[in-house]
Design goal:
Length: about 110
């Protein structure tokens, strides 16, 4: 697990998180419930880690919804801050753009 994801998990566990406007839009567009993303975070698998991203460290993780379907979520921390964790976006990955395990781009 990446250090960014560890920090994000701790913050989410204590309720120190928010969802970006873009995140809300993407959740709604793909019919993903916030609760599913939160509940699955403990079992998240890191797909891509960006500890030096200019806007702040962030990580793309693979989650599964209640029916076992893949969800990608990008979580981040604001640059220069320790909190809150921010759900930047979450979406159902396109199988044409990802390998069968949804861990690598085609």
């Amino acid at each position: 697990m990446s250090s960014t994801l560890r920090k994000i998990c701790r913050l989410v566990d204590t309720g120190e998180f928010r969802i970006s406007d873009h995140g809300y839009d993407e959740l709604a567009e793909d019919g993903i419930l916030v609760g599913e993303v939160i509940a699955a975070l403990a079992e998240a698998q890191v797909v891509e880690d960006y500890p030096n991203y200019p806007k702040g460290p962030c990580v793309l993780v693979l989650l599964a919804d209640g029916d076992g379907r893949a969800i990608h979520a990008v979580w981040g921390l604001p640059r220069g801050q320790d909190s809150p964790a921010v759900l930047v976006t979450a979406y159902k990955p396109d199988p044409k753009k990802w390998t069968d395990d949804f861990k690598r781009r085609r």
